[in-house]
């Protein structure tokens, strides 16, 4: 019986392991020194470690790009059984890699471009990409107003970006939406001001405790300045008390949400942090400084959130005529002095965190996250006695109407198009054809698809923009439907999907990476027993089993999947596709067929979430159509046919302004308006709220 030799006994595998070890040691050393040394010492650090790091990266490049053909099969990872990152390294020109094209990471920036693995090259992909992948221009790494992806971000900015979910939860609270739209009832604002006064007093005291713990004169001075700014803000609140007829002598009891927040701040400032000694037990000034850093970490989210909201509302709300009842509140948090205080707080957090260990930085992150959650909870706790457009879930319990959620799958829910996943399985596991032959076949299919898709899109566009006309749009997209059917027929005839194991497809689905926030949204919506809702996925995906596996393995609840299906004989694909959803027309037909099952329920409210031209008709048929990502073809086609694309938050504010007593709706079918979002966290906040 033939014996399998362990991979480290093979000379090339041994060389690979050594290069990988050297690379990790040097890169980790360089990273740690960069983190813990002052900026002016970084150049010396680079002089010491860069040559060795360069050599390690060169060895790694040899391993990845040049020695792959020499490695024995047992040294190559199975793309289905290993993380996607390793698949990208060993298959740098793969379909998945082309989907995840990104700027060169810092750890490879030391290398000349010619020495970098192709998966991190800025040059265009040169290998075969499955049909439908190139045509979809949805952005995987969407940009938002929260910040760019610059590597120069300090700790505070990185945490702000990381916890944008809590930002969106705060933005889409009924309280803030009503305040921004100008129709928040006065009693609710009075309640908020009274509760905020409790909070600001605790905030000022927390700054005082942090100042006592700081051992650096500059830090003490900065904290003292921030405390003075809070005391000025309290004076502004006193003017609100007079303006809004609040009795200053009347003591207002803090609500549970307010107490929870203030207790968190004061406990942190007193050193009562899990795993941390109290200030009285801290032996050295350095240990006391940690408490100052922890306190600023807990307080920074409030400053950054209010500064962001002030600027955002200043942009969206017309304050010129002076009629907005909360103009003074918006101007206070959008003014230059408050913006400066927010930046000063973030800068202070960055400086106080420089010398902290990884474990201590984890505590910083945890406290920052808690602070963000407390802010959202504080807004949600404000009592409202008026109709609001958000969240949708409040009007769809089992005694009310049904909320029907529709979603596309590829690049709406996922990071990688499912056709790329199936292509990787085929290229790496089908024995009847060589991988080179399969790649070549995929390349021909891809090139033909891309060229014809672009021609088809161009041919359906009217010469100039027209008023919204759904019927004309349907007629135009029928041409796209014919094209998609021909493309799928070519895939079947090529035989590239023949010989796939069902088990491997399901395993790939289990490991499929979903967009940030997508899993959490579906878990919450399917786990809410009080919500009368159903979820349907409408997809062009060639294999519904892949989708079902992705949802079931992620614990995302019961989802009805409407997609094409591969046919199998003894769990091996025949290469045939059972065609169910191939085109925009098929999707909208499935959409209407599903709703017919709920025809006895006159209170259905439909939401469709999509990212491509194939979703356009369903997006328009839904009561609320939400576009995620930045597909240029979707926007081009939609705009030419009179469809309006409105960022979600301004759209919500406009709808809230139009609210009248007893009637408050976000939208209606065939309005010609679609709402755009940067992430699933916005969708979560809109539909489910806190």
Largest sheet: 7 strands, parallel
Please give the alpha-carbon distance between the first and last residues. 61 Å
Oligomer: single chain
**Sequence of strands across the biggest β-sheet:** 4-3-1-7-8-10-9
Structural class: alpha/beta
Given as residue ranges, the uncertain stretches (5+ residues, pLDDT < 50) are: 1-24, 30-46, 59-151
Say how many strands there are: 10
Helix content: 40-55%
Overall spatial form: globular
Radius of gyration: 28 Å
Instruction: Enumerate how many helices there are, as a single number.
Output: 25
What do these coordinates show?
The chain is built from 25 helices and ten strands. It has about 700 residues and is an alpha/beta fold. It has a seven-stranded parallel sheet with strand order 4-3-1-7-8-10-9, sandwiched between helices. The model is unreliable at about 1-25, about 30-45 and about 60-150 (pLDDT under 50).
């Amino acid at each position: 019986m033939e014996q399998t030799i362990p991979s480290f006994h093979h000379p090339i595998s041994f060389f690979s392991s050594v290069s990988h070890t050297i690379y990790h040691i040097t890169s980790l050393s360089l990273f740690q020194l960069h983190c813990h040394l002052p900026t002016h010492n970084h150049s010396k650090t680079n002089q010491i470690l860069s040559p060795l790091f360069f050599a390690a990266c060169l060895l790694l490049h040899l391993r990845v790009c040049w020695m792959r053909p020499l490695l024995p099969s047992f040294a190559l990872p199975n793309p289905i059984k290993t993380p996607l990152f390793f698949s990208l390294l060993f298959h740098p020109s793969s379909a998945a890699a082309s989907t995840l094209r990104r700027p060169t990471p810092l750890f490879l920036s030391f290398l000349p471009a010619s020495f970098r693995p192709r998966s991190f090259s800025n040059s265009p992909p040169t290998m075969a990409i499955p049909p439908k992948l190139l045509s979809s221009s949805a952005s995987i790494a969407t940009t938002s107003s929260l910040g760019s992806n610059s590597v120069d971000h300090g700790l505070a900015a990185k945490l702000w970006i990381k916890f944008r979910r809590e930002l969106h939860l705060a933005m889409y609270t009924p309280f803030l939406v009503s305040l921004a739209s100008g129709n928040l009832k006065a009693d609710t604002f009075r309640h908020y001001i009274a509760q905020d006064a409790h909070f600001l007093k605790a905030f000022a005291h927390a700054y005082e405790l942090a100042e006592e713990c700081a051992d650096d004169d500059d830090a003490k001075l900065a904290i003292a300045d921030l405390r003075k700014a809070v005391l000025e803000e309290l004076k502004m609140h006193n003017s609100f008390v007079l303006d809004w007829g609040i009795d200053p002598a009347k003591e207002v009891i803090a609500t549970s949400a307010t107490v929870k927040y203030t207790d968190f701040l004061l406990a942190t400032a007193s050193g009562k942090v899990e795993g941390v000694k109290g200030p009285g037990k801290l032996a050295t000034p350095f240990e006391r400084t940690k408490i100052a850093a922890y306190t600023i970490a807990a307080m920074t989210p409030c400053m950054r959130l209010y500064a962001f909201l002030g600027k955002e509302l200043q942009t969206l709300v017309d304050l010129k005529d002076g009629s907005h009842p909360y103009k003074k509140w918006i101007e206070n948090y959008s003014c230059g002095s408050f913006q400066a205080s927010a930046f000063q707080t973030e800068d202070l957090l960055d400086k106080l965190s420089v010398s902290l260990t990884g474990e201590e930085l984890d505590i910083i992150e945890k406290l920052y996250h808690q602070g963000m959650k407390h802010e959202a909870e504080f807004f949600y706790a404000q009592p409202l006695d008026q109709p609001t457009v958000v969240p949708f879930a409040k009007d769809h319990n089992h005694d009310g109407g049904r909320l029907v959620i529709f979603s596309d799958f590829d690049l709406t829910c996922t990071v990688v198009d499912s056709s790329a996943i199936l292509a990787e399985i085929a290229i790496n596991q089908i024995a009847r054809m060589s991988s080179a032959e399969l790649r070549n076949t995929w390349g021909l299919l891809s090139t033909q698809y891309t060229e014809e898709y672009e021609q088809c899109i161009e041919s359906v566009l009217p010469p100039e923009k027209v008023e919204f006309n759904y019927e004309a749009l349907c007629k135009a997209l029928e041409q796209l439907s014919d094209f998609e059917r021909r493309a799928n027929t070519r895939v079947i005839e090529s035989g590239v999907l023949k010989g796939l194991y069902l088990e491997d497809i399901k395993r790939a689905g289990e490991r499929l990476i979903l967009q940030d926030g997508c899993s959490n949204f579906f878990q919450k919506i399917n786990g809410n027993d009080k919500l009368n809702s159903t979820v349907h996925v409408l997809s062009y995906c060639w294999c519904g089993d892949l989708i079902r596996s992705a949802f079931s393995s992620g614990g995302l609840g019961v989802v009805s999947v409407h997609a094409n299906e591969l046919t199998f004989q003894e769990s091996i694909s025949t290469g045939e596709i059972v065609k169910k959803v191939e085109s925009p027309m098929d999707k909208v037909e499935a959409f209407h067929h599903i709703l017919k099952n709920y025809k006895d329920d006159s209170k259905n409210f439909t939401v469709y979430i999509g990212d491509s031209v194939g979703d356009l008709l369903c997006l328009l048929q839904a009561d609320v159509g939400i576009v995620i990502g930045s597909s240029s073809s979707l926007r081009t086609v939609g705009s030419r046919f009179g469809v309006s694309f409105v960022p979600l938050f301004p759209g919500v504010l406009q709808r809230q302004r139009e609210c009248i007593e007893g009637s408050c709706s976000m939208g209606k079918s065939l309005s010609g308006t679609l709402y755009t979002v940067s992430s699933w966290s916005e969708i979560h906040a809109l539909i489910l709220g806190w």
